[in-house]
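Course assignment 3, question 2. Fill in each field.
Student: A.L.
Task: Predict the tertiary structure for the chain below.
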Amino acid sequence: MDPPVSVRVYRWRNQPPLPATPPPGPVDIATWRLLWRVYAIRPRRVEMMARYLGLADGAPVSVSQLGRDYKLSRGRVVEAYGTLARAAAQVGAPVGLRAVSDRLAVITVSFEDDVVTALLADGLLAEPLTLEAIAMVAALFRLAVPVPETLGVTGGRRLICAPGLTAAVRRWRSRLVVATMIVPVRLADLPAPEQVPPELAASLLTCDPRLECSSDGAVVWRRDRLSSAGDIVVSMLTTGPQTVSALLDAIRLRYANRYTVADFKPPSGDALRAYLAAQPWVSLDDDRVTLTGPAPAPLPRVDRVFLDAFAGSRPPRPES
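Answer field:
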């Protein structure tokens, strides 16, 4: 005769049937096996811990949310995770998790789905997992995994970057944001860090809500048009069609006496053409630019003053 359920649970809790060596195979399968060994007759605990780790729905669920969903206190959820963590420490990290760590360590900049696809193809994962879920599984087994950070989303795909390279990429984008406050710039003048693959430089810019670039990734400009120099372009086009060279001359004249050569470099004709070709309110026919729709409102005077000062212009001297 079998003992009561409460006795079976008690006996099992004191002697969990854990393997003596780290389990082989895909990381997620090894983690699922550990969950079912620890909570063999408690499927709700298995489901709860799987959601906490991100194995069930892709994204890890917080302790507070799990407490609300399963009608448990925060302490009970933490206690359940503690039981699982002690069992994971006894078993050791899955063999595949160390291989995943080695793969993530060599990533510079990439799309998250490309990385996950490669892990699936090599048998390190059985089902797609997010990087957050991999980080949670690594923390469960107390293994330091260099999980890449998210830089942004472009075309529905997440761009990720190595932790040591993230600061350099963000500084590069910030420099472009400042440089494009007045005019578009060529990417060759402010290239990406050396570790960034050239084919991903344009994607790193388009996932920034402040920046936009040409289809070939050669020219970069602000999404809020040419800032104070843009007011000159709009003002001239409202009087009639203009040539690109005439617009360039006006911009140079506007800033010639206010900035040193180091502070201001006028845009090239290609840079200005690329910017105008991307605007819905103008028509560009070779060198001729025509206003075809409602132009964006000029910047308020206070914004123009701020942008000019930020770009390096000298404040006016007080009258004596």
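Instructor remarks: Residues 47 and 56 are 8 Å apart (CA to CA). The two ends are 106 Å apart (CA to CA).
Grade: pending
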